[in-house]
Amino acid sequence: MREYESDAIRNVAVVGHGASGKTSLVDALAFVSGSSKRHGSIKDGTTLTDTTPEEIQRKYSISLGCAFAEWKGAKVNLIDTPGFLDFQGDAIAGLSAADGALLIVGAATGVEAGTERMFREAIAREDPVLFVISMMDKEHADFDSAYWMIKDRLTSKVVPVEIPIGAGSGFGGVINLIAKKAYVPAKSGKAGEYEETDIPAAERERFERYHAEMVEAVAATDDQLLERFFGGEEIPSEDEMAALKEAMKREDLFPVLCCSAHLMIGVRTVLDFLVALMPNAYEMEELHAFKGAEGSKAVEIHPNDDAPFAALVFKTTAEPHVGDVTFFRTFSGTVASGQEVYNATRNGAVKLNHLAVAQGRERIAVPRLHPGDIGCVAKLHNTHTNDTISTKAHPVRLPQIAFPESLVTFAVRAASRNDEEKMQQGLHRLHDEDPTFQTHYNSETLETIVGGLGERHIEVAMARLARQFGTKAELSSPRIPYRETLTGSGDGQGRHKKQSGGRGQFGDCWVKMRPAKRGDGYAFVDSIVGGAIPRGFIPAVDRGIQEASACGIIAGYPLVDFIAECFDGSYHSVDSNEASFKMAGIQAFKSVAPKCRPVLLEPLDMVHVITPDDYLGDVMGDLSSRHGKLLGTAQADNGAGSVVNAIVPQADLHLYGTRLSSLTHGRGSFTHQFHGYEQMPREQAAKVIAAHEKSVQEEVEA
Ligand SMILES: Nc1nc2c(ncn2[C@@H]2O[C@H](COP(=O)(O)OP(=O)(O)OP(=O)(O)O)[C@@H](O)[C@H]2O)c(=O)[nH]1
Ligand SMILES: [Mg+2]
Asked: CB of 14 closer than 6 A to ligand 1?
């Protein structure tokens, strides 16, 4: 493979809604360029970038995959990303590693929730976006309708630069509006090859209409061009392409192409446009002034060969028989195979043995990579996603990828007790590969919790746990960490006395208990006067109360936010000791707390939902039915609809993401943070108390 310098490299993230044809197109692009030897298919499980058993079996992408197409002297790095929201982490990682987005829109489906999400994501990063209307050969394929949906729902700055000849089973080629030529499959019949012809007479009128729209849209992005256009001059296609490229960099225009990956019609022209319109590494620098940190000092990152090497790890995967494979995007400096580099994020030196570029699962050894290129190496010790690898002399840290936070959580335990440790290791490995898959141990509820972006995400993670780590795990909804507190005050005695031959035990205390402010926790007040209890034993009373309060009084949850005051007691000069007074403290708690009107507290989350206005009523209704307290609505940024803020009990939020997605046809999103504890309504509390009583009963019977 030849060596590609920065100006010959294009980095493209292929993004879009689930099943819009991304993986098929990436395969076709690599194949028609000649860089990949086989035309793979989803049906046979042979695409370049859906390679894991989970992807092949389910027929959708789960993690990002890297491929490339060498075309017209350039190397187009293609990052195929998953379309489902559940695997969005890798779509974000793909966009972070790329310099532009190829946004795929199915010709039969048009703009969907995932299209909209990825468009906004690319715009937020100031990336150029090229639309491709895919699957033009499919039944009900409709270019015009897909194009108008983009215009209507995403941006008015969209402009077609290609239109299809026919659609569905009649799809027979594409017309390039800039070159004013038609491209139809070559008579040679060789896959993907095309012949340039004049525009068929039957398409002439459509061509004229779209052409006029394109010329005007391009001219409008450049004052000089606009002047020439109004002067009646015919703008040469080179000037149009140059203006288009500049407008794309400013997000002033978004060109649209069309193709069929299955028939490989229009695929080569996608490559032509990618090479011509997507920025190379140098041009990226004008777009985003890359910044990093060296120690505490900010540094600029330049994509020059002789600048110090710096690259960001954007993905790691575990491959059978190989081990970990690390994918990184270089931002500055060249790097050679075998070179020792420095992981500034973890302070460790690592050697890049067998430097390679990935063509799907295959790794092709390369001697050197130039700035902007995407590389991979196997068995890179202690290096994870979001680490920066650089040099010892310049230990740079690049800005990290901001992965989305968990939206669903489950409690998980190994199906067999002996597998518990293996399961824990597996869960951590899964997190290393996919930062959006989270795991932690909740010491309050004594459960291992896993979190992810959706139920499908968790389900796939469990399938991988079983396959790669040989442990079956069971999921359940996480226990809710309820608390108990007091709403009244009372007092009483705790008296511990035992006489069993020899030395006895004696402790006696009088305790008053009352509520404290929410969030103030527990306080102990010592108001003993006149030595009713000797000083040394009073802390033992405090400890006894604390120990007893950890198990609560009504449903087994810790009692919080109360004040216990020890105001009287008595002792025995021989039999009293600390242990006896601790027992007395426990007794006092047990006798006084029930008198103080104990209640249950439930944890509440602050929830922010963003939804298109069409679904606002449904979303609010659903939140109310979850006992949510609605705080109001506001307009969301950049026209994404409305924001609803509500305080909702955690117990009512389990799998909320799934519900929101179905209510809003995948277009709603939400975030939530812990808000605080509040007294639980009587009816719900009664259920929790009954569940506790039942489990105590079962324990007694067992
Ligand atoms: N007719 C037709 N079908 C296609 C074409 N491209 C893809 N498909 C089919 O559409 C389905 C989805 O294709 P994928 O390539 O997996 O789509 P994707 O966007 O990668 O899907 P996710 O990875 O789930 O986001 C598969 O059944 C493909 O065979 C095409 O050009 N024509
Ligand atoms: Mg895919």
From this structure: no
